């Protein structure tokens, strides 16, 4: 994972978007916070309802705060497994949506994340969305 620099850049098309999403999922499934952080800009924003429960705020600003949030979240989750469902890439908006099932401990939730890329091909803003229990 750490040597896969091609996956640290913004997708160029639907196929590279699928590869990017698979890389992102693989990094989470190995709990490799640093591999996920390499995808994000230093001044990124990340919004999540789960962040509010851990940090007291629904939006996390900057890589150091994002690292601290994700590390704290992983300590609180005994097991984590993401299963890829699909991806949508909008090149004009430089926006990627990943659909997946998030198995977080005993919970299985339908989930999606939206990533908006900056001029340097890194994630400027990410938004995590958790929904109904997965069947």
List keywords for this structure.
alpha+beta, 4 helices, single chain, 135 residues, disordered N terminus, Nuclear Transport Factor 2, Chain: A, 6 strands, six-stranded mixed beta sheet
Describe this structure in words.
It contains four helices and six strands; from the N terminus they run H-H-E-H-E-H-E-E-E-E. It has 135 residues and is α+β, with helices and mostly antiparallel strands. The protein has a single domain, classed as Nuclear Transport Factor 2, Chain: A (Roll). A six-stranded mixed sheet has the order 2-1-6-5-4-3, covered by helices on one side. A hairpin with a 2-residue loop joins strand 4 and strand 5. The radius of gyration is 14 Å and the shape is globular.
Q: SSE layout and pairings?
A:
Elements: H1 14-29, H2 33-37, E1 40-47, H3 49-55, E2 59-61, H4 63-76, E3 80-90, E4 95-104, E5 107-117, E6 123-133
Parallel strand pairs: 1-6
Antiparallel strand pairs: 1-2, 3-4, 4-5, 5-6
Number of E strands: 6
- Helical content, roughly? 25-40%
Range of strand content: 35-45%
Low-confidence stretches: 1-6
The CATH topology turns out to be Nuclear Transport Factor 2, Chain: A
Counting DSSP H or I runs of 4 or more residues, the number of helices is 4
